[in-house]
Amino acid sequence: MTRFSRLLQAAILLLPAAASAAATIEVRVSNVAAGKGTVNVAVCDKERFLKQCAYSASAPAAAAETVVRIEGVPPGTWAVLAYQDVNQNKELDRNVLGIPKENYGFSRDARGSFGPPSFDAAAIQVSGDTAAAAIKLR
Predict the structure, then answer these.
(1) pLDDT per residue over 62-74, tens digit each?
(2) Which residues contact 134 (CB under 8 A, 6 or more apart)?
(3) What is the residue extent of each domain of the chain?
């Protein structure tokens, strides 16, 4: 067996392990106004919290609760945020003072005093194949 063959065989054997290392996060977003736009969800690490999150997904707004699944999230500590994009412009609309005009929320029901919560307040642990996060829009 050549060196290339051994490397190829090792890579093939490792593929299932690498695929199972990523999780699907099921985000249950409550307090959703039915039929108004989409619910956008993002999963952020500490470095990119509230900036450019690594993972995101959306689903049409459903009455009371909308479930959004985000696949391919590696194990670790993550914060999940969601908002209802009523006008579907893919942005959390804000007024002139920077206060959100659309409902939003964070994992662990984290809230900040004057502004968004800290990453640590919203952090969840992701391990295994699936993880869950509940978010109540406000």
Answers:
(1) 988 999 999 999 9
(2) 27, 28, 30, 107, 109
(3) 22-136
